[in-house]
Structure to design on (1033 residues):
C-alpha cells in the first residue's frame, strides 16, 4: 500500500510540475511584464496600451546594454467576470515577484487593482509603472483615504510611478471647464467604482468651491440596463450639465441615451475613462454631437507634437489604425521602463526601482516631464474634447492657467 | 470505491499537494493556493446542497460576509485591529449567524423558492457591500489586511498562505468526514432523501435544515476570511456576485455532490481549467505567433462541458457512494 | 404629481419588457419545474439578431414606410429565431433528462446559458453596442412636463396583443388546454393521451417567441445591446416570475410590472444605487410572508 501511495504522489507531482517548470526562464534576460484587463469590456483600451508598450520596447531593439528585453502581457481579468479580479491581479503580482528576471511591472489599468498589487510589489522592491491609474490616494498623502499612500508602501520605499496625471488634477480642471462654458447648474453621477466615485467627489468639491450649483449627486448600478427613472428625477431639478464619474464600461453611453430619452437637453461631461472610440460606438455618434464633454490627461493623439507626433505616425504605420487616447501612455510607460533599466545599468530590482524614481526632464512622447517625489508625473496638461461627426474633436487645453 | 483505496488516494493527493509548491512555478503555485481556498467554499456549499439537499444559490454572500468581517476586524482604519486568527474565528461564526438568520424565516419554503430567497439574499448582500461605504469602503475594498504574524514572510511568499489553506482544507475535510457518520450528518441525509419520512421518524426538519444552512455558511465564511487574508484585502463587491455562487455550484456538481472527493475534485478541475489551463494554452498560442485567443472560446467550452456532463455522467466525476448505487439501479 | 405619473409610465413600460421575458421562465417552470437560466441569454441572442437585421437593412434612414416594414420583418425573424432555438434547446438538452433529478437539468441550463453568452461574445464582442434609433423619441403628449413617447407606444402596441393572444391560446385552444393539463399533472396528462413531449416543445417555442419579441422591443427602445444584457434582464424577469407566483401566467405579467415600478419609484424616492437591492429585498420579504408569490397557488407537494 505504501508503494502505491508514493507512486501516485510522484505521478501527481510530475504532471502538475511539468506545467510549472515549463514557464521558468534562463538568465541573461530582463523581463518587463504588464498586468492589464485583457478580457472583458476594457479590452479595447488595453489593446492599444499593449501596442504602445510593444512599440516602445521594439524601438529599443529589445536590448538595453547587454540585456535582452522580453515583454510579457499578463491578464488581470477573467472571462467569467468580464473585468479585473483581485485573485488574478494577486496572481500576476506573485508571478512577477517570484520570477527573478522581472525588473519592471507595468500596470495596472484599474486603480482598484493597483491597491491589490502595490503592497506586494512594494515589499519585493519591484518598480511599478502605471499607464492609467488615476486614484490620487495611490501616491499623494492627504488626497485619498486615511492611511494612503503609506499603506501601500510597507517597505517604506517608493516603488510606484505613473505617467498619467491623477484625478485631483482632472476633477478640478473639469469643474473649472464647466464654469468657463457657462454650465452653472450641474447634477453629478458616479458609477461607485474607485475611479468614477473618486473623480466625481473631487469634481463636486471643486464645483462647490468655485460656485457652481450642485443639484445632486447619485451613484448608479453599473450593471443596470437603463436609467430613465433616474433621468426623470434629474430632469425635474433642471441641470445644464450632467457630470458622470465613470467609464464607457460603466454605462456612460446608456446614460446619454436615457437623458435624451426623457427629453433632458443638457451637456454631458465625463472623464478620460470615456475617451475611447467605444464610448462613441456605444452611445451613438449623433447623441454625442456637441453634447459630450470629455476630459483627458494630456493632449489627444492628433494634437501631439514632436516625439508624440512621430509616435502617432509610427503607430498608424505599424497597426494600421489611429491610436486611441491611452496608447501613448502605454508607449510612455514602456519608454520609462527601458529608461529605468538603462539608468540602473544592472539587473537588480532595487537599482531599477531607484533609477525609475530619478527620471527627470524626460523628453517623451507626452512632452518634457519628470517624476516628483511621490512618483507622480509633473505633467498637468489636460484637454477638453467633444464629439463631432462620430469623432473626438479637440476643444481646449485645460488647467494651464 | 472501497474506503481503503479512498484513503490511499487521499493521502497520496495530500502528499502531492504538500510537495507541489516546492517544485512548481509561483504562478501555478499561487493559482493552486486559490483553488485550495475555494475548496473550502465548495465543501461549505456541499453541506447545504449535497448533504441536506437544499438548493442554495447565494453562497457567495456568506463568502463575502466572512471576508468583510475579517476585513473590518483587522484593517487599520477601524479601532478593532484584531489579529488574523481571532478575526477568522469571528468571520466563521459571524457567517454562521448570518446563515441562520436568513434561514430561520425561510425554511418553510419549498425547494426552489428557498433557492430563490438565497439568490435574492446574495444580491442584497452584494449591493450592501457596495453601498455601505462607511463600513465597507464600497468598491475601494478594505485594505490592507495585515499578515497573521511577522515571523513569516506571508506577503512576499505565497507558500505560507498555500500551506495555511492546505491545512484548513484537511481540517475541514476531516471534520466533515466525522460529521457524515454522526447523528447530525445522518439527519441531513435523511432530510435530503425523504423529508416527510424523516419528520415522521421524529426529526425536527426545521432544526436540521437550519443547522445545515448555518454550517455551510460558516465554512463559506472561513473560506472568505482566508481569501481576504491571502489577497491582503477584501476584494470589491464584484467578488461576491451571483456568478460566483453559480460557478461554485458547478464545481460541486461536476465533481460529484454529497461527498468530499467530489467537492474538492470539482474545484480543482474547473478552476484549473479557468485559471491554469486556459492561460497556459493562450500563452502557447501567443508564442506560436497566432492572432486568436483560446480564452475567447473558454465560456462556450465550459458550457458545453456542463451540458455533456449532465447528459452522460450527471452524478459527477466522483459520485457519492449513494449516487453510485442509484446509478447502478 | 406629474413626476409620479411619469415614473409610473417609466416603470410600466420597462415592467412590460420584464413581463414578456418572465413568461418564458414561468411557462417552462410550470410544466417541467426547471429554472431555465438560459432564457435571458436567449433573449440576448435575439437582440443581436435584431441588431444585425436592422443594421443590414439600414432602417435608420429608410423613411417611415420602409422602417415600419423593416421593423415587422425584424420582429418576425427574431421571434422565429428565438422560438426555434428554444425549441431545439429543449429537444437536444433537456428532453433526455426528463427523469433525472432536478439539479441535473438546472446545471444543463447553466451550461446552455454559458454557451449562449460565449457565442454572443464571439458574435458581437464584449463592448456595449448602440442599437440604431429607428423609432423617433418623439413625445406624443402636448406638454413637455409629461412624456409618453412613440417608443412607449410601441412597447404597448406589441406586448398587449401578445399577452392577450397568449392568454386566449392557453385558455381556449387544444394545445393550451394540454399545456395546463401537463402543468397540473404530467403523468395523468400522458395517461389521457396527451403527447407530453410535444406540449413541452410548444411551451419552449412560445416562451422563445415572446423573448424574441421582447428582444426587438428592447433594442428599439433601450437602444443598447451587449452580451451581458441577458444576464441582468434575465435575473429581473426571473424575479418577476417568482414574485407573481412561478408557473402562473398573469402572475408573471403582474410581477414584471411590480419590478418595473419598484425600480422607477425606488429611483425617484429612495436612491438609484439602492434600486436593485430594493427589488431583491422585496422579493425575500414577499416570499417570507406569502411563500407562493402574489398570485401563485398554494404549493402542491409533488412526491
Amino acid at each position: 500500500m505504501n508503494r502505491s501511495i508514493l507512486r501516485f504522489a510522484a505521478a501527481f507531482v510530475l504532471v502538475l510540475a511539468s506545467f510549472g517548470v515549463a514557464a521558468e526562464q534562463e538568465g541573461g534576460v530582463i523581463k518587463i511584464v504588464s498586468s492589464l484587463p485583457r478580457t472583458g469590456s476594457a479590452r479595447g483600451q488595453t489593446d492599444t496600451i499593449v501596442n504602445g508598450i510593444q512599440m516602445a520596447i521594439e524601438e529599443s531593439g529589445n536590448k538595453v546594454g547587454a540585456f535582452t528585453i522580453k515583454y510579457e502581457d499578463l491578464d488581470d481579468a477573467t472571462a467569467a467576470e468580464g473585468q479585473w479580479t483581485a485573485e488574478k491581479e494577486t496572481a500576476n503580482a506573485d508571478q512577477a515577484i517570484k520570477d527573478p528576471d522581472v525588473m519592471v511591472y507595468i500596470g495596472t489599468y484599474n486603480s482598484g487593482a493597483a491597491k491589490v498589487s502595490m503592497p506586494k510589489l512594494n515589499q519585493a522592491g519591484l518598480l511599478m509603472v502605471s499607464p492609467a491609474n488615476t486614484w490620487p490616494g495611490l501616491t499623494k498623502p492627504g488626497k485619498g483615504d486615511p492611511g494612503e499612500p503609506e499603506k501601500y508602501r510597507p517597505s517604506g520605499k517608493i516603488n510606484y510611478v505613473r505617467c498619467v496625471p491623477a484625478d485631483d488634477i482632472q476633477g478640478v480642471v473639469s469643474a473649472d471647464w464647466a464654469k468657463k462654458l457657462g454650465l452653472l447648474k450641474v447634477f453629478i453621477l458616479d458609477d461607485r467604482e474607485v475611479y468614477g466615485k473618486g473623480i466625481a467627489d473631487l469634481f463636486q468639491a471643486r464645483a462647490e468651491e468655485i460656485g457652481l450649483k450642485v443639484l445632486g449627486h447619485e451613484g448608479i448600478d453599473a450593471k443596470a440596463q437603463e436609467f430613465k427613472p433616474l433621468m426623470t428625477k434629474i430632469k425635474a431639478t433642471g441641470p445644464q450639465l450632467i457630470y458622470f464619474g465613470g467609464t464607457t464600461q460603466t454605462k456612460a453611453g446608456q446614460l446619454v441615451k436615457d437623458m435624451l430619452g426623457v427629453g433632458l437637453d443638457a451637456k454631458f461631461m465625463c472623464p478620460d475613462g470615456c475617451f475611447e472610440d467605444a464610448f462613441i460606438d456605444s452611445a451613438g455618434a449623433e447623441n454625442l454631437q456637441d453634447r459630450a464633454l470629455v476630459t483627458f490627461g494630456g493632449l489627444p493623439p492628433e494634437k501631439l507634437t514632436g516625439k508624440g507626433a512621430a509616435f502617432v505616425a509610427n503607430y498608424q504605420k505599424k497597426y494600421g489604425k489611429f491610436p486611441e487616447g491611452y496608447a501613448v501612455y502605454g508607449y510612455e510607460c514602456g519608454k520609462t521602463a527601458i529608461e529605468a533599466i538603462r539608468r540602473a545599468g544592472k539587473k537588480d530590482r532595487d537599482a531599477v526601482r531607484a533609477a525609475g524614481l530619478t527620471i527627470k526632464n524626460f523628453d517623451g512622447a507626452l512632452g518634457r516631464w519628470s517624476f516628483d517625489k511621490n512618483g507622480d508625473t509633473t505633467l498637468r496638461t489636460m484637454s477638453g474634447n467633444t464629439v463631432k461627426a462620430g469623432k473626438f474633436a479637440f476643444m481646449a487645453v485645460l488647467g494651464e492657467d | 470505491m472501497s474506503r481503503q483505496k479512498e484513503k490511499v488516494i487521499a493521502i497520496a493527493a495530500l502528499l502531492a499537494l504538500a510537495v507541489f509548491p516546492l517544485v512548481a512555478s509561483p504562478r501555478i503555485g499561487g493559482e493552486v493556493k486559490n483553488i485550495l481556498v475555494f475548496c473550502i467554499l465548495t465543501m461549505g456549499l456541499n453541506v447545504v446542497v449535497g448533504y441536506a439537499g437544499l438548493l442554495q444559490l447565494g453562497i457567495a454572500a456568506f463568502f463575502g460576509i466572512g471576508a468583510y468581517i475579517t476585513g473590518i476586524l483587522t484593517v487599520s482604519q477601524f479601532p478593532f485591529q484584531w489579529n488574523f486568527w481571532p478575526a477568522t474565528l469571528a468571520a466563521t461564526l459571524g457567517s454562521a449567524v448570518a446563515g441562520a438568520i436568513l434561514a430561520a424565516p425561510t425554511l418553510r419554503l419549498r425547494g426552489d423558492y428557498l433557492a430563490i430567497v438565497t439568490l435574492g439574499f446574495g444580491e442584497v448582500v452584494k449591493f450592501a457591500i457596495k453601498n455601505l461605504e462607511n463600513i465597507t469602503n464600497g468598491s475601494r475594498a478594505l485594505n490592507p489586511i495585515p499578515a497573521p504574524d511577522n515571523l513569516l514572510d506571508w506577503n512576499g511568499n505565497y507558500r505560507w498562505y498555500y500551506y495555511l489553506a492546505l491545512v484548513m482544507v484537511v481540517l475541514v475535510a476531516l471534520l466533515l468526514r466525522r460529521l457524515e457518520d454522526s447523528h447530525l450528518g445522518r439527519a441531513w441525509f435523511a432530510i435530503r432523501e425523504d423529508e416527510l419520512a424523516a419528520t415522521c421518524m421524529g426529526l425536527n426538519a426545521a432544526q436540521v435544515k437550519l443547522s445545515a444552512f448555518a454550517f455551510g455558511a460558516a465554512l463559506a465564511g472561513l473560506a472568505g476570511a482566508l481569501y481576504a487574508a491571502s489577497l491582503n484585502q477584501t476584494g470589491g463587491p464584484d467578488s461576491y456576485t451571483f456568478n460566483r455562487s453559480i460557478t461554485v455550484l458547478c464545481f460541486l456538481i461536476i465533481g460529484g455532490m454529497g461527498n468530499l472527493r467530489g467537492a474538492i475534485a470539482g474545484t480543482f478541475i474547473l478552476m484549473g481549467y479557468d485559471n491554469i489551463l486556459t492561460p497556459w494554452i493562450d500563452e502557447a498560442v501567443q508564442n506560436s505567433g497566432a492572432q486568436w485567443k483560446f480564452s475567447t472560446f473558454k465560456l462556450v467550452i465550459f458550457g458545453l462541458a456542463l451540458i455533456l456532463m449532465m447528459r452522460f455522467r450527471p452524478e459527477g466525476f466522483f459520485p457519492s457512494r449513494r449516487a453510485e448505487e442509484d446509478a447502478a439501479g | 404629481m406629474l413626476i409620479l405619473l411619469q415614473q409610473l409610465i417609466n416603470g410600466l413600460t420597462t415592467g412590460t419588457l420584464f413581463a414578456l421575458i418572465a413568461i418564458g421562465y414561468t411557462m417552462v417552470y410550470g410544466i417541467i419545474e426547471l429554472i431555465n437560466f438560459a432564457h435571458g441569454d436567449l433573449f440576448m441572442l435575439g437582440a443581436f439578431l435584431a441588431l444585425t437585421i436592422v443594421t443590414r437593412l439600414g432602417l435608420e434612414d429608410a423613411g417611415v414606410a420602409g422602417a415600419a416594414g423593416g421593423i415587422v420583418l425584424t420582429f418576425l425573424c427574431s421571434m422565429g429565431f428565438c422560438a426555434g432555438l428554444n425549441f431545439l434547446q429543449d429537444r437536444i438538452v433537456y428532453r433526455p433528462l426528463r427523469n433525472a433529478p432536478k439539479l441535473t437539468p438546472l446545471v444543463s441550463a447553466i451550461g446552455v446559458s454559458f454557451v449562449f453568452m460565449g457565442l454572443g461574445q464571439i458574435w458581437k464582442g464584449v463592448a456595449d453596442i448602440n442599437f440604431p434609433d429607428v423609432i423617433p423619441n418623439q413625445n406624443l403628449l402636448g406638454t413637455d412636463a409629461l412624456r409618453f413617447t412613440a417608443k412607449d407606444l410601441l412597447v404597448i402596441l406589441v406586448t398587449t396583443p401578445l399577452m392577450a393572444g397568449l392568454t386566449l391560446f392557453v385558455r381556449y385552444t387544444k394545445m393550451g388546454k394540454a399545456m395546463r393539463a401537463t402543468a397540473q399533472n404530467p403523468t395523468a396528462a400522458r395517461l389521457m393521451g396527451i403527447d407530453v413531449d410535444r406540449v413541452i416543445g410548444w411551451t419552449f417555442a412560445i416562451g422563445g417567441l415572446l423573448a424574441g419579441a421582447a428582444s426587438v422591443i428592447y433594442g428599439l427602445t433601450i437602444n443598447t445591446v451587449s452580451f451581458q444584457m441577458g444576464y441582468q434582464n434575465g435575473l429581473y424577469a426571473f424575479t418577476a416570475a417568482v414574485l407573481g407566483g412561478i408557473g402562473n401566467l398573469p402572475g408573471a405579467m403582474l410581477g414584471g410590472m411590480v419590478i418595473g415600478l419598484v425600480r422607477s419609484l425606488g429611483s425617484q424616492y429612495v436612491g438609484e444605487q439602492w434600486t436593485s437591492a430594493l427589488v431583491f429585498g422585496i422579493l425575500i420579504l414577499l416570499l417570507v410572508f406569502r411563500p407562493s408569490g402574489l398570485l401563485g397557488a398554494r404549493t402542491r407537494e409533488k412526491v
